[in-house]
Amino acid sequence: MDLNADLGEGFGVWRLGDDEALLGIVTSANVACGFHAGDAPTMRRICEWAADRGVAVGAQVAYRDLAGFGRRRIEYDPSELRDEIIYQIAALDGFCRLQDEKVRYVKPHGALYHAATTDVRQASAVVAAVADYDRSLPVLCQPASALATCAAQSGLRVVGEGFADRAYQADGTLVPRGQPGALVSDVDAVVERAVRLALVGEVVAIDSSVVECPVESLCVHGDTPGAVDLAQRVRSALEMSGVRLAPFVPLR
User: Fold this and answer.
1) pTM over 0.85, yes/no
2) Where are the alpha helices (DSSP H) in the chain?
3) CB 23 within 8 A of CB 51
4) Could you report the per-residue pLDDT of 53-94, keeping only the tens digit for each?
5) SS3 for 167?
6) How far, in Å, are 53, 184, 222 from residue 197 at the CA level?
């Protein structure tokens, strides 16, 4: 099982989360590429740290929306969205190559992640960007989503992702941020959900129904209060349950 976190989400003098500490816990890092957060020095720093620790680097691509942290939906022309995603992957890949590494996968961020779950038009733009840039790159996304379907149909590898600290709806989609109960804040509950996702591939939805959620990677958010302690608790619980943690893509 892979354990991932969204990292590099500061900008300029502003820092968000303890990236260095989280890189000692997770196995994959979803790195902001400058559109919703992140900048060139931050990307370089994260790539250096990740290479030193054997952590896989993925491009966390987003809408061009620094002010809204990429959490506001934008209706793009698909070809423009495709090209802006290629731009982001390539920027991060350049800093990876300075470490004799490469971007290992692609994951949408925020509103783009949610849009690509159900919107075939935007999901197809994400898939087109990955296919144009490097068809060997897996797409990290929600299982059974529009993005997962489009990626699989295009011959790309799909890696299912689960969220222990986000609430699910009965249809398997995430409860939108801003709605009551969208975030799971109880640490014990988050840990229990992570283990259940890893071992059984299911999660309890906000209406108490059980949703099948086969995943290869679990996300712990780096911008939540106490993120480092929470990530360590999740990792320790997974290992105690017999789950072997490793990136879902082999590193050189």
Assistant:
1) yes
2) 19-22, 40-53, 78-97, 110-118, 120-133, 146-153, 187-200, 227-240
3) no
4) 999 999 999 999 999 999 999 999 999 999 999 999 999 999
5) coil
6) 25, 15, 19
